[in-house]
Specification:
Helix content: 25-40%
Structural class: alpha/beta
Largest sheet: 7 strands, mixed
Number of helices: 6
Family: Belongs to the GART family.
Radius of gyration: 17 Å
Strand order of the largest sheet: 3-2-1-4-5-6-7
Shape: globular
Pathway: Purine metabolism; IMP biosynthesis via de novo pathway; N(2)-formyl-N(1)-(5-phospho-D-ribosyl)glycinamide from N(1)-(5-phospho-D-ribosyl)glycinamide (10-formyl THF route): step 1/1
Low-confidence stretches: none
CATH superfamily: Formyl transferase, N-terminal domain
GO molecular function: phosphoribosylglycinamide formyltransferase activity
EC number: 2.1.2.2
Function: Catalyzes the transfer of a formyl group from 10-formyltetrahydrofolate to 5-phospho-ribosyl-glycinamide (GAR), producing 5-phospho-ribosyl-N-formylglycinamide (FGAR) and tetrahydrofolate.
CATH architecture: 3-Layer(aba) Sandwich
Order of helices and strands: EHEHEHEHEHEEHEE
CATH topology: Rossmann fold
Number of strands: 9
Distance between the termini: 43 Å
Mean pLDDT: 94
Strand content: 15-25%
Length: about 220
């Protein structure tokens, strides 16, 4: 089996990148983390990747005149390392449509809400303000429109009386750390793939259960 070469893009501590690196170390995992790359030289996640023996460096976006030139440098670095798949993990840059189209079907992101609800930022407070009883996270393919790509996997948590945005952030992040490696495995195995703008799954699952809140 040929393992797919994966690059993780981060802007900070990269907690999701850690969960992906740990998952990829497991025997039989169908992908390898070949690169961790940040747009910020001070990103804490770079040091953790180096400790794992993974190539890690920054392309400082402030050194480029515009988004297009930064994205061109980013693309060149990824191609030079034969990257097959990009995982965005707290990468706080809006990528140009040209870059996204180049990596169509080969770039995924994790977002802290149950998309299509609460695209963008400040998702946990917005969930509380909306009064939802179920919140969570989503792994999706990246498209030019922000947080609008086809959904690969989701995980849900209950919202309970007295919850704060910080409470939700902690519980959702714990689910992110479980969901992202699972979704990455599905993609690398070919069990989830993008076809004609939709995610196609190779295997079905039981729909007999239910998720309730309160419950």
């Amino acid at each position: 089996m040929t393992r797919r070469r994966i690059a993780i893009l981060i802007s900070g501590r990269g907690s999701n990148s850690v969960s992906l690196m740990e998952a990829a170390r497991a025997p039989g995992f169908p992908g390898e983390i070949a690169l961790v790359l940040s747009n910020r030289p001070d990103a804490g996640g770079l040091a953790r990747a180096r400790d794992e023996g993974i190539e890690a460096f920054a392309i400082d976006h402030t050194a480029y005149a515009d988004r297009a030139s930064f994205d061109a440098a980013l693309h060149e670095a990824l191609v030079a390392r034969d990257i097959d798949l990009i995982c965005l993990a707290g990468f706080m840059r809006v990528l140009t449509s040209e870059f996204v189209e180049r990596w169509s079907g080969r770039m995924v992101n994790i977002h802290p809400s149950l998309l299509p609800l609460f695209r963008g930022t400040n998702t946990h407070q917005r969930a509380l303000d909306a009064g939802v009883l179920i919140h969570g996270c989503t792994v999706h393919f990246v498209v030019p429109e922000l947080d609008a790509g086809p959904i690969i996997a989701q995980a849900a948590i209950p919202v309970v009386p007295g919850d704060t945005a910080a409470d939700l952030a902690v519980r959702v992040l714990a689910q992110e750390h479980r969901l992202y490696p699972q979704a990455l495995r599905m993609i690398c195995d070919g069990d989830a793939r993008l076809e004609n703008g939709r995610v196609v799954f190779s295997e079905g699952w039981s729909a007999a259960g239910s998720l309730r809140s309160p419950g």
